[in-house]
Specification:
The protein is of the alpha+beta class and 281 residues long. The chain contains four helices and 14 strands.
Length: 281
């Protein structure tokens, strides 16, 4: 049957149904559907934002998604990913994102893994005019209190020109069956300072945005469920809770005072004898 005939037939059926509903004064809501849209969106972004143009519309560029760094011996052992990996030395800045994630020639020499200790070593042959190696040192330990294994990023080492800079990262921790994720892992105080330089002031500055790492119980090339660094209670939540508790205390105290009010059971009659009241202490 031709599409035109099908459309005409469907239109007649719809007309008959609507006529029946109108004649019986039945309130109704109609939803007309189709097997496929009559207009085909050429751009996927148009489907997400609607087919019509929006006021002050501009094209939104999605951030590039690059694969994680994966250290393998006989199987994937360590996964490391960040949306942005930036390093500073003295007054110089360098973005290592493109040189790290998705780079075919990334040097992982010096990386190591076993069930209790993992090293992820990233070497850049020409960074700030010299060879620089970044080592992420992670340890896996069993804690009897929780009866499970937890991993901790012991520190980050930066090797260059025969010297080593150490950054403590003890807050990068989580159950060993999970990965760890944080919006920022940085030595910058404005971004949390989860990387703390042992020697102050430090010539090196490291910032990892959207950081995620897993060094134990890795299965394939994908991260496990992430243990996030964000706390359960933000400052806004604490302020709301404390304010609510303070208001509840005022309400409870006021209600208690109202319920404690006592009225006299006898009243003075100006035509009769004066009532003497016993003072209540």
């Amino acid at each position: 049957m031709a599409p035109r005939e099908v459309l005409t037939g469907n239109d007649e059926v719809i007309g008959q149904v609507l006529s029946t509903l109108k004649s019986e004064d039945v309130p109704y809501t109609a939803a007309l559907t189709a097997v496929r849209p009559s207009r085909v969106a050429r751009d996927v972004a148009m489907v997400a934002g609607g087919l019509g143009r929006q006021l002050l519309q501009k094209q939104v560029v999605a951030p590039a998604i690059h694969p994680p760094v994966s250290y393998n011996d006989t199987a994937p052992r360590i996964l490391f990913w960040a949306q942005n990996f930036s390093v500073g030395y003295r007054e110089q800045q360098q973005d290592l994102t493109a040189l790290t994630f998705g780079a075919q020639d990334l040097n992982l020499t010096g990386s190591f893994w076993n069930n209790s200790l993992a090293w992820l070593s990233l070497t850049y042959p020409s960074l700030f005019g010299t060879m620089v190696t970044f080592k992420f040192i992670l340890a896996n330990r069993f804690y009897p209190v929780s009866a499970r294994n937890w991993f901790t990023m012991e520190h980050l080492e930066i090797h260059s020109n025969g010297s080593v800079a150490y950054f403590n990262a003890s807050q990068v921790t989580g159950p060993s069956i999970y990965s760890f994720h944080c919006e920022y892992i940085s030595s910058d105080s404005r971004k949390g300072s989860l990387l703390v330089a042992r020697a102050q002031p430090s010539l090196w500055h490291v910032t990892l945005q959207d950081f995620q790492i897993q060094a134990f119980n890795v299965t394939g090339e994908q991260f496990a469920y992430a243990s996030d660094c964000a706390g359960f209670f933000s400052p806004g939540i604490w302020m709301g809770l404390l304010t609510s508790l303070f208001m509840l205390f005022i309400f409870t105290y006021g209600l208690h005072m109202i319920l404690s009010l006592k009225t006299m059971d006898r009243f003075d009659d100006h035509k009769g004898p004066t009532i003497s009241l016993t003072q209540i202490v």
